[in-house]
Amino acid sequence: MTNRYIFLYASGMVILVALILSGAATLLRPLQERNMRIEKMQNILSTINIEASKGEAEAMFDRYITTAKVVNHLGEEIEGDAFEVDLQDENRKELSERMLPVYIADVDGNTYYVLPIRGNGLWGAIWGYVSLDSDMTTIVGANFDHASETPGLGAEIADDDFQDQFPGKRIFDETGQFRSVRVVKGGAPPDDPHAVDGISGGTITSNGVTNMLQSGLSAYESYFKKINTL
After folding, report:
1. Which end is more exposed in the chain, N or C (fewer Cβ atoms within 10 Å of the end residue's Cβ)?
2. What pLDDT, on the 0 to 100 scale, is given for residue 35?
3. pLDDT at 9
4. How far is CA 75 from the centre of its chain?
5. pLDDT tens, 70-79?
6. Where are the alpha helices (DSSP H) in the chain?
7. Is position 138 within any domain?
């Protein structure tokens, strides 16, 4: 067997495997994109206390999410598809240029507003959804996830025990000033409507959630105030 034959055989196998992998990736991409859409719907619905299986997610989303729109930093509705807005890209822009998605839900006659947010944890991106009651200040629910936070530490932002602290918290104070919600190391004062307990050993991730809530929700401040005047 000559070196030339070995080289040609190896090259052919490499090309064949590359073609197979490329074809598989192309065939699987629609399925992957569909699964991502369904997971996004499930996460949005979870903030308004609607649990949906993968098979139910699309129908439940269409049932409860009555409006999906995009607004700017002035609270004005602008052209765009809320579901297709990439917050990673938007967060790189100046606030005045950002597209801000808003999902409006109707659950048994109650109106809720679901807002996506994105920030940075210890090792990578963190993101989530926060729903507000019709008063535009009381949190109804929150859902958080992460790319690569440490299991047992920062990754706990995706756990129910952490997320269940948010319902009932408030993002505006009694004077109408935006306060957001902060994650407090060592434990939040029990009577503080703007604070939740931090994650033990996950200080940087906890701070990342605080910053994500502050920057993400404050971008909608004009929209909140505009809705409250209607």
Report:
1. C
2. 85
3. 63
4. 20
5. 999 999 999 9
6. 3-46, 57-64, 87-90, 160-163, 203-218, 221-228
7. yes
Mean of all residue pLDDT scores within the chain: 91
> What is the separation of C-alpha 221 from the centre of its chain, rounded to a whole number of angstroms?
18
CA distance linking residue 25 with residue 21, whole number of Å: 6
Residue 26 has pLDDT above 90, yes or no: no
* pLDDT at site 4: 66
Instruction: Yes or no: say if 159 and 134 are a contact pair by the CB < 8 Å rule.
Output: no
Helix axes 57-64, 3-46, angle to 10 degrees: 40
Q: How many domains does the chain have?
A: 1
Residue 15 has pLDDT above 80, yes or no: no
Measured on CA atoms in the order 69, 111, 129, 216, is the torsion positive or negative?
positive
Residue 56 in any domain: the answer is no
Per-residue pLDDT, 34: 84
3-state secondary structure (DSSP) of residue 230: coil
DSSP codes, 170-190: BSB-TTS-B---EEETT---T
Answer yes or no: is pLDDT of 58 > 60: yes
pTM above 0.70, yes or no: yes
Question: What is d(CA 200, CA 90) in angstroms, rounded to the nearest whole number?
Answer: 31
Q: Are 107 and 64 in contact (CB under 8 A)?
A: yes
Residue 177 inside a domain? The answer is yes
Answer yes or no: is 25 within a domain.
no
Element (H or E) spanning 115, and its range?
strand 110-120
Between the alpha carbon of residue 6 and those of residues 3, 13, 111, 154, the distances in Å are: 5, 11, 68, 50
